Amino acid sequence: MDHPRVNRREALRTLATAGLGAASAPLWIETLSALARQQAVHVHPAAPGSAPAAAWAPKVLTPHQNDTVVVLSELIIPETDTPGAKAALVNRLIDLVLESAAPADRAAFLKGLAWMDARSTALFGTDVRSATPAQQAELLTRLSSEDGRAQEEAIGAEFFDALKAMTIAGYYSTAIGLRQELGDDGQLVFAEFKGCEHLEHG
After folding, report:
1. % the chain with pLDDT above 90
2. What does each C-alpha distance from 41 to 10, 15, 23, 59, 188 come to in angstroms?
3. For 36, what's the count of Cα atoms within 13 Å in the CB-facing half-sphere?
4. Under a CB-based contact definition with an 8 Å cutoff, are residues 107 and 148 in contact?
5. Higher pLDDT, 179 or 1
6. How far apart are CA 112 and CA 9, in angstroms?
7. How far apart are CA 74 and CA 56, in angstroms?
8. Separation between Cα atoms, residue 72 and residue 78, nearest integer Å
């Protein structure tokens, strides 16, 4: 069974093919992913050295939703011998992306986030944030494995795909992702990301 976390090769492949689009992916996923790549390059705070947690508050996510995004993104890129998505402040990028996203795309993401809590409660009797690490990992594993995805609602699998793409974009735009994880010496540049080309999204 596939593990929900990403590896270095997978992350780089995702970045390398950014903007090419996936024929089977819903448009809202492609659009949010493109926004995440664009925002990551220009304004994502490259931890460490960004504003302390007490000085930052999400503009779109509620505190509970933000905590859930922190938990889920850290499961995708966890702390190992290098810091994970939580330390890279990926949740801040995601909130920023949602703030600038089209209302329908934002609503799709938030619907998926709510589904995660509902599914966790159905499976484990508690929401994602309060579930055990093993339960949290099991939920994401269900959505990342081919067999598991077939048994879950489409919105759950779609949300996982969107969150994964946004987490990768955010993490590998920071000093933590580029230098500590990839060992970049300053020569690896993700300065030109091709955004969504669908006319209805500008």
Report:
1. 44
2. 19, 12, 25, 20, 12
3. 32
4. no
5. 179
6. 27
7. 19
8. 9
